[in-house]
Amino acid sequence: MAENVRLHLIDILRDGPAWLGPVLAVKVFAIVGIVLPIVLQMALPTQQSFMRIALPGAAFLAIAIMAAWLFARAQRLGEKRTLDGVRTIEDVRALGWQRFEALLAEAFRREGYTVRRKDGSGPDGGVDLRLTRDRQTTFVQCKHWKARAGAPIVRELLGVVVAEQAHAGIVVASGGFTKEAVGFAAQATQQGQHLRLIDGDELVAMILKAETRDTA
Fold first, then answer.
1. What integer pLDDT is reported at residue 116 of this predicted model?
2. What are the C-alpha distances in Å from 164 to residues 7, 130, 146, 157, 167?
3. What is the rounded distance in angstroms from the CA atom of residue 103 to the CA atom of residue 85?
């Protein structure tokens, strides 16, 4: 539970304006450390235990928010620099897989999504990015391969989308897709599934378009 709250906070701070973290920290400190103790003292004048821990607790929360904000802004800056440095498919293929995911995170963010990247630094485990927009969730699988991604990759993501009742699934493959993968995606779309494949050429066009939508 606490971990989910922390990750959600980082998502909000990363996708929000640059001033959000400091303002939130100040408000939390004021409410927890000043306003709430005054209200409780008026309501329960005999209870003083909370008063002794209010300010330290408020300071701890404010510091935690600022730490999360610094982490989120540093991550966002890295993602922006990665995207703004890409012009061709060769630039994309020169990236490591972690920077490739950072590139996609920033590109989707500039399309108006809130983006959550998978936890940890290991290889992908099925869903690399979780996109949220208009209260709908989209799962993204990132394949930074020289070889073409096949139908099993697309089928795997669709299975996760259906199992978790997500709105849509997107597979991004820098090396493109096999005919079988394209055919499977087309069939799934005809059956009402929201499934999108993005190959190298479409990815570069998406990145170049995103560069005109720079956000805070």
1. 86
2. 19, 12, 30, 11, 9
3. 10
- pLDDT grade for 4, boundaries at 50, 70 and 90: low
For 90-104, what is each residue's pLDDT tens digit?
899 889 888 898 899
51 with 22: CB under 8 angstroms? no
Compute how many other C-beta atoms are within 10 angstroms of the C-beta atom of residue 193.
14
H or E segment to which residue 131 belongs: strand 129-133
The answer to whether residues 137 and 65 belong to one domain is no
Let me know whether 23 and 129 are in one domain.
Answer: no
Show which of 49, 64, 83 is a domain's final residue. Answer: 83
Whether the Cβ atoms of residue 160 and residue 169 lie closer than 8 Å to each other = yes
By three-state DSSP, how is residue 79 classified?
helix
50 to each of 28, 34, 36, 93, how far by Cα in Å? Answer: 16, 11, 10, 56
State the amino acid at position 107 in one-letter form.
Answer: A
Do 72 and 139 fall within a single domain?
Answer: no
Residues 107-153: tens digit of each pLDDT:
998 898 988 887 544 444 479 999 999 999 999 999 998 889 999 99
Q: How far apart are CA 8 and CA 142, in angstroms?
A: 21
